[in-house]
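Appendix B. Chain record.
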Amino acid sequence: MAEFYSNHTDNYVVGPRYHAVRVTASSEDIADDVLEDLEDGMSGSDILKKYNQSSELTVRVDTMKIAFDQNAELHEEAEGEEGAYGVWEKDARWTTFGVFDIIPEGPREFNEIKGIVTSDYQKYLETQWVEELREKYEVEVNEEVMEDLESAL
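Structure tokens predicted for this chain:
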């Protein structure tokens, strides 16, 4: 399957993306503090250790690769640059982003899209199998039965 992916990387090309950490906080004050920590270069795991000592619900940290057009608020602030960005409120939770780096347009990594590649590979194998069957066996259509089916519809 890895060979199939290597031969079809053009099928898995995406636009530029942010490699970022998203921190969702329980209060605006904590989100502001997290923003400062991100600006100082603190990692997501260090943020978890610092803020979730009394409750695991204080902050949530997600590391992600996110397309420029996938989060309008982030892209509007970041404009394709690395750094720490914004505090946005939604549903009584505050979110901030730290952008580690910008991933240029190119194929997604195999481990990111293994499920999609698996599905494509299965379709490819099925197509190959059907072609082999067509070469090996002659297809005969019983016209009488076909007419009966057509008239029944």
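Further analysis of this model is presented in Appendix C.
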